Amino acid sequence: MAATTPAQCDELFARYLNAGNVEGVVSLYEPRASLVMETASPAQGTEAIRAAITQFAALRPTLTMNVVRVVRAGDDLAVLYNDWRLSGTRPDGSRLEDSGKAIEIVRRQPDGSWRFAIDDPRARG
């Protein structure tokens, strides 16, 4: 399923990640998109984003997204302000609780769907 509105990018991200659907999450990004990583350089492009999302999915997370603001620039570009929470299980079995305040730039694609161009999960934190 493709996002039909800017905010639906976050809705689908959470749905796919919570289901462990890495390919579903990756499909929400443009081929040359950037995902800002907390402890590393940004993941740029499909393969790097797939590797990063695979690590998140391994936590068996429960992710909730709360889009608090959408700012559009014309018909095909938008900025999302998203407050998120994640709980999961680390590889050693300990619990993980995390949250952040993201800024995400999404762009309408030629087929009318929306995808992430830049995703910074901690931009406002």
Question: Care to describe what's here?
Answer:
This protein has 125 residues and is an alpha+beta fold. It contains three helices and six strands; from the N terminus they run ααββαββββ. A six-stranded mixed β-sheet has the order 2-1-6-5-4-3, with helices on one face. The radius of gyration is 14 Å and the shape is globular. It has one domain: Roll (Nuclear Transport Factor 2, Chain: A), CATH 3.10.450.50.
- Per DSSP, what share of the residues sits in E-state strands of 2 or more residues? 35-45%
Shape: globular
Q: Compute the gyration radius: what is it?
A: 14 Å
Q: Give the CATH class.
A: Alpha Beta
Share of helix among residues? 10-25%
Structure in a nutshell:
The protein is 22% helix and 43% strand. It has 125 residues and is of the alpha+beta class. It has a single domain, classed as Nuclear Transport Factor 2, Chain: A (Roll), CATH 3.10.450.
Keywords:
alpha+beta; 125 residues; six-stranded mixed sheet; Nuclear Transport Factor 2, Chain: A
